[in-house]
Each structure stands twice: as C-alpha cells, then as structure tokens.
C-alpha cells in the first residue's frame, strides 16, 4: 500500500492511509515541492508510483513502456541467436546493427489525455573473429662493447734523503763555578738544559741562572 508523502512546508496527512481525492490540488499558499520529490512511498519507505489518478502518482504509461521495451529486446536477442546458429561456420557474414522501434499509446490520468511513447533499441549483429598469423621472429645481434684498458700508472721510486752524519762531537760537560765565569764566557743567562746550567747558579730557582 502506498502512502502520501507531504513535501516540506505542507501540512501532514490527517491519517496514515489518507489519499488525495481525485482532482485534488495543493493550496497555492503552500511552498512548491522540491524538484523530483517522491509524493508516494511504499511500505518500506521507498519511492512508489502511487494510486492511478491521485495527485503526484506517476502515469501507467511509463510502466507499459518498460514492459514493451523489455519484450522487444528479448525478441531481438532471440532472433539474433537463431540467425547466428544458421550461419556457415567457415565464414561469418557481416550483419549490420538492427534498430527496433515500438510505439505504445496508453491513457494518462485525466478524462481525455493520452500519451505516446516510442522505444528504440539497437541490437548489434554477431561479432566476426579474425585470427592473424603470428609475426616472424626478429633476431637482433647486439655488438659487444669495446673493452677499454687503462695503462697502469708508472711506479714512482720513493726518494729518501739520508740524514747527514754528525761530524762534530757533542760538547763536553761544562761547569761554571759562579755567574762571573758564565758572564766571562758570554753565556749569561743560562736556562735549564743549557750546557753549564746548575742549581747553584740559579738562586731563585726559576729555571734561569745568572740573570
């Protein structure tokens, strides 16, 4: 059973099973229904065609046109299958596409209105299968890359410089009795490690004697 679905801004139906009477029209003061609004819903809440002749119900011509289109398509498919079975298996003939046109006239809600629906469906013919011979194999010979040989780097002889031999004998131990002797020898001042440095010459023991 279909129930009437009021658009936004319209008053709700007085009862769940309420249906607009034949010839009923909404109040002009009500806002227009949104485009494509479903005025009728089935028990599952899905769009329904609605009772014939009621406001918002779709005319039955759409249903009849769907039936006719399905029947025509079925007949064309059967004809195509029968034609393909009778064809020779050695060569598949070329069959052009077939266009079937069906005209259906059905009454529409209203006293004298009728509607004409033309259904066209193009059914392709059988498909011919063409098998091409395999292409000949192509042999490609690739040239070997040239080998590049790098000459080894020449060996470089390491040149070592011989240290000169020491020809002078190390100085003998030098001893100075006092700073006067250091100054007389022209060696003042003496630092730690210098020949002749001694602690008795470094009074303040700062590493520098005979300052």
From TrEMBL:
Where, by residue number, does the polypeptide cross the bilayer?
A: 64-81
Q: Which UniProt keywords apply?
A: Membrane, Transmembrane, Transmembrane helix
Q: Where is this region: Disordered?
A: 1-31
Give the top-rank taxon of the lineage listed in the UniProt record for this protein.
Answer: Bacteria
InterPro entries under this entry? Excalibur_Ca-bd_domain
Which regions are flagged for Pro residues bias?
8-31
Name of protein: Excalibur calcium-binding domain-containing protein
Q: Which residues form the Excalibur calcium-binding domain?
A: 175-211
- Pfam families attached here? Excalibur
Can you name the source organism?
Kribbella pittospori
């Amino acid at each position: 059973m279909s129930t009437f679905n009021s658009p936004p801004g319209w008053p709700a139906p007085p009862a769940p099973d309420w249906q607009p009477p034949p010839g009923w029209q909404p109040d002009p003061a009500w806002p227009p229904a949104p485009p494509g609004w479903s005025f009728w819903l089935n028990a599952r809440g899905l769009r329904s065609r609605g009772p014939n002749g009621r406001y918002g119900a779709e005319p039955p011509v759409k249903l009849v046109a769907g039936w006719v289109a399905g029947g025509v398509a079925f007949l064309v498919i059967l004809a195509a299958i029968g034609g393909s079975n009778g064809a020779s298996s050695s060569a598949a003939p070329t069959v052009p596409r077939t266009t079937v046109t069906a005209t259906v006239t059905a009454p529409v809600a209203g006293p004298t209105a009728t509607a004409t629906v033309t259904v066209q469906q193009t059914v392709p013919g059988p498909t011919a299968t063409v098998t091409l011979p395999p292409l000949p194999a192509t042999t490609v010979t690739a040239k070997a890359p040239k080998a590049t040989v790098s000459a080894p780097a020449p060996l470089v002889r390491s040149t070592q410089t011989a240290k000169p031999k020491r020809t002078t004998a190390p100085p003998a131990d030098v001893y100075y009795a006092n700073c006067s002797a250091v100054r007389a020898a022209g060696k003042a001042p003496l630092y730690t490690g210098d020949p002749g440095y001694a602690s008795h010459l470094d009074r303040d023991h700062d590493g520098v004697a005979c300052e």
